[in-house]
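In response to the reviewer comment on reproducibility (Comment 2.3), we provide here a single inverse folding case reported in full, input and output, so that an independent group could reproduce the run without further information from us. The C-alpha cells appear first.
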C-alpha cells in the first residue's frame, strides 16, 4: 500500500494505492490525523480509485475520520471507488454519512453546495 497526502480548500486529499487492510489502515489513520492537526483542514477526501481491496479496517478508517471532521464542522468525501470496493462502501452505510462521488471535483462541489 502506498499513501499520498495533499491539501487544498481546507481539505486533505488522501490517495491510497493498493490494499486498504488492517496493516495499511494503521498508517493511513496516523498520517491523516497528523495532517488534520498540522494543517487545520476540516475535510478529508479519500481517493479510492487505485484501491484494489478494502476490508472492515478500511471502513473503520473512513468512519473514524468522519467523526473527527464532523467535530471540526467538515465532511468526508469518498470518490473513485469501483467494483468490490464500491460495494463495500454501499453495504457498510458509508454513503449515508459521507459524500460519495465519482470524482474529486464532484465530491468537492457537493460539499461546497451544502456549506
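Designed residues, in position order:
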Amino acid at each position: 500500500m502506498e499513501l499520498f497526502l495533499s491539501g487544498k480548500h481546507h481539505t486533505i486529499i488522501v490517495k491510497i494505492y493498493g490494499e486498504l487492510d488492517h496493516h495499511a489502515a494503521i498508517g493511513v489513520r496516523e498520517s491523516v490525523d497528523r495532517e488534520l492537526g498540522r494543517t487545520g483542514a476540516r475535510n478529508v477526501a479519500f481517493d479510492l480509485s487505485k484501491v484494489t481491496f478494502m476490508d472492515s479496517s478500511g471502513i473503520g478508517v473512513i468512519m473514524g475520520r468522519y467523526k473527527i471532521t464532523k467535530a471540526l464542522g467538515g465532511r468526508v468525501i469518498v470518490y473513485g471507488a469501483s467494483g468490490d470496493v464500491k460495494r463495500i462502501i454501499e453495504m457498510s452505510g458509508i454513503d449515508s454519512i459521507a459524500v460519495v462521488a465519482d470524482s474529486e471535483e464532484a465530491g468537492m462541489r457537493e460539499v461546497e453546495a451544502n456549506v
